[in-house]
Design goal:
The protein contains four helices and four strands, in the order αααββαββ. It starts with 9 loop residues before the first helix and ends in a 7-residue tail after the last strand. The radius of gyration is 22 Å and the shape is elongated. The protein is of the alpha+beta class and 135 residues long. Strands 1-2-4-3 form a four-stranded antiparallel β-sheet, with helices on one face.
Length: 135
């Protein structure tokens, strides 16, 4: 059995009381520590999201690229969103038997299908946004 108890909130009250009596230097140090902790959390969340994507969706996308003779490009942008782009000369056909690929497409936050005027290739771009914290 696993149990996760988040009922003890005494630390929050203690912090609230402490902030009322901080010196200027202590307040600056506390703010710097909070910013550093938040930045570290953001980086960890982005890394965890990319690792999850690599384990859950990347194998499916690679299989689909191999099946369709496409080029697959994966990148993570400055907002930590993962962008998967499939490029093919023949277009894409996701059939009823390709349930895993249906799942990947359904999970995408943004889907773009393009054929640029100066290109003979079709691009299928799927963008997977870093999940936002619900507070």
């Amino acid at each position: 059995m696993q149990e996760f108890d988040f009922t003890n909130r005494d630390g929050v009250n203690e912090l609230s009381e402490m902030t009322e009596h901080l010196s200027h230097d202590e307040a600056a140090a506390a703010i710097a520590a909070i910013h550093a902790t938040r930045d570290e959390k953001k980086n960890t969340e982005a890394e965890d999201f990319k690792n999850w994507f690599d384990a859950a969706f990347l194998p499916i996308l690679k299989d689909f690229a191999a099946l369709t003779g496409s080029k697959l490009t994966i990148q993570q942008d400055s907002f930590h969103d993962v962008i998967a782009t499939l490029t093919s000369r023949c277009g894409f056909d996701i059939t009823a038997t390709q349930k895993r690929m249906h799942m990947v497409v359904a999970a995408a936050d943004h889907i773009s299908i393009n054929r640029w005027s100066d290109s003979s290739e079709v691009e299928l771009t799927l963008i997977f946004g870093l999940p936002e914290n619900e507070e």
